[in-house]
């Protein structure tokens, strides 16, 4: 009878005590979370209750298993299994606690600086993400190493492994050269402020937003919702455009090709009217100038500004569309035309012009509208 009750008491008591301690800890964290809404720390720590209870149970069973006198012929194997569970749950709990602390620090920093310095917030977010991944990787490697050292055979092989560490290091370095370069490039990006999560970039002719940065690759979400995955070493070895570096404010241009008789003053006034009605325009700059001329057209450029890359795109397409509509409706002669006859020189008698029917038919100027280029 004692052989049956003893294991039940030890094992059952360990499980019940684990559940009670886990429930009490979860209640305390829930009350702390209700009292302190300004920080998400307590709510994030509640996510660690499973590895916490697993660790408690493993500790209690490891400490009291000898009292059960159960499976005495397999004491070493059972003890090793409990030790492995103890190490794994401790690593899992450490990762969860570290993630909660890091996420809380970032949330507090972001809430205080989001309005004043959004670029700095994106930089800290990138660093926090990579730090969390590095911590998880380090804790995982240490946990696996600790598990392996619980086996006597692994400890016995330690001397031979250390003796060949130099050769293995050289071989591993050559084999994992690209992986290691990407890992160091990821750390360089995180702390060098080259590119951050949320930045607007142009890489290989593709415009998009940085969505994810890891130690080995970086994901860019394009405007049409495609994802481009690139090795992080690309951003440390090749030039790329970062439109969010420094300040997110941007200046954009809109070009038109119009006839030489286009009403430039009316176009400038219309540009100001269009921008006043465009909420994405930030009011910093508004300009319209002639930048080039050809035998048949003038190249006109409008200069507009906005607070970021998304808004500057909206401002440009709005200005381009409404200005073309304005010219087509009110000044159709301003659209580019192709001359099909030579220009008629003015008469020598000083008059401003002669009636069209008095001119030879072969010398009348006929014009046709031309398709307006983009």
UniProtKB/TrEMBL annotation:
<dbReference type="Pfam" id="PF21082">
    <property type="entry name" value="MS_channel_3rd"/>
</dbReference>
<feature type="domain" description="Mechanosensitive ion channel MscS">
    <location>
        <begin position="179"/>
        <end position="245"/>
    </location>
</feature>
<dbReference type="InterPro" id="IPR023408">
    <property type="entry name" value="MscS_beta-dom_sf"/>
</dbReference>
<feature type="transmembrane region" description="Helical">
    <location>
        <begin position="6"/>
        <end position="29"/>
    </location>
</feature>
<feature type="transmembrane region" description="Helical">
    <location>
        <begin position="157"/>
        <end position="176"/>
    </location>
</feature>
<dbReference type="InterPro" id="IPR049278">
    <property type="entry name" value="MS_channel_C"/>
</dbReference>
<feature type="transmembrane region" description="Helical">
    <location>
        <begin position="77"/>
        <end position="99"/>
    </location>
</feature>
<dbReference type="InterPro" id="IPR010920">
    <property type="entry name" value="LSM_dom_sf"/>
</dbReference>
<feature type="transmembrane region" description="Helical">
    <location>
        <begin position="130"/>
        <end position="151"/>
    </location>
</feature>
<dbReference type="Pfam" id="PF00924">
    <property type="entry name" value="MS_channel_2nd"/>
</dbReference>
<dbReference type="InterPro" id="IPR006685">
    <property type="entry name" value="MscS_channel_2nd"/>
</dbReference>
<feature type="domain" description="Mechanosensitive ion channel MscS C-terminal">
    <location>
        <begin position="257"/>
        <end position="330"/>
    </location>
</feature>
<keyword id="KW-0812">Transmembrane</keyword>
<protein>
    <submittedName>
        <fullName>Mechanosensitive ion channel family protein</fullName>
    </submittedName>
</protein>
<feature type="region of interest" description="Disordered">
    <location>
        <begin position="338"/>
        <end position="374"/>
    </location>
</feature>
<comment type="similarity">
    <text>Belongs to the MscS (TC 1.A.23) family.</text>
</comment>
<keyword id="KW-0472">Membrane</keyword>
<feature type="compositionally biased region" description="Basic residues">
    <location>
        <begin position="363"/>
        <end position="374"/>
    </location>
</feature>
<keyword id="KW-1133">Transmembrane helix</keyword>
